[in-house]
Amino acid sequence: LDWKEDMNFKLKNGETIHINVFSLVYSYSRFKVFYLSLSRKRDVLLHLLDQAFETAGGVPKALKTDNMKTVMDEPRTARSKGKVNARFEQFAKDYGFETKPCTAGHPWSKGKVENPMKALDELFAYNGKLDLYGLCLILKEINERLNASVHTTTGKIPILHMEKEKDFLQALPDAQVRNLYRIPTLSVKVDPQSMISYKGNKYSVDPRHLGKKLDLQAYEGYLYLYDNTELAAVHAIADKKWNYQEEHYTALTVYALKD
């Protein structure tokens, strides 16, 4: 478990944001799960870990982690075993894994995570060309490509090798426990104008979602909309009544002309 931290990225509207990429790598298969996040707060970390376990299909018996402050109150060193903070310790207990912090100053001890992190530098090729939604999609493409490519060390394809690793993973806890750590999700319906409502304001989605109910999560100043597990749209939370993204407006116009 690790982060690629504090990368400055310029959006296509000229705004510069600070992004972080959450990374979880399963040891046996080298199956990777990446998520983009604007913060590394503890609540966001726990939510993303829950999502990563679900994506991978199970919980490992042990989790090797950096000495990040959202996990450790005191870092592990050559002379000290460190101290896991109470919130993360309870999360580990509820999900059934042992927390194994790396020794501070020994980056080689988490090389399975840090090596694939280098592939994330590809994101900078899109600097100034994407919005946050597009950036999330590019990260997903990189993630899927790495999982479908032969790993240079194991000689195996992670997504195929993961099927064997799943036999050794634990089931996720029940929904009642998971809801303690997941960011709250609302169900919203896409109206005939291809908009959803949030706190009295309207936000656009692609018209292929017309009439559907989407899952909405609001955090870090943004709305994340999902159609099942597919990311449907990302919007900055705004005070404006109508919030259209250009590509959604164009797609809706084409859709209306076809009708």
Provide a brief overview of the structure:
With 259 residues, this protein is an alpha+beta fold. The strands form five sheets. Strands 8-11-12-13 form a four-stranded antiparallel sheet. A three-stranded antiparallel sheet has the order 1-2-3, with helices on both faces. A three-stranded mixed sheet has the order 9-10-14, with no helix packed on it. It is 28% helix and 28% strand.
How does this structure look, described?
It is a single chain. This protein has seven helices and 14 strands. With 259 residues, it is α+β, with helices and mostly antiparallel strands. The protein has two domains: 176 residues, Nucleotidyltransferase, domain 5, CATH 3.30.420.10; 75 residues, OB fold (Dihydrolipoamide Acetyltransferase, E2P). The longest helix has 16 residues. One of its GO terms (molecular function) is nucleic acid binding. This is Transposase. InterPro entries: Integrase_cat-core, IstA-like_C, RNaseH-like_sf, RNaseH_sf.
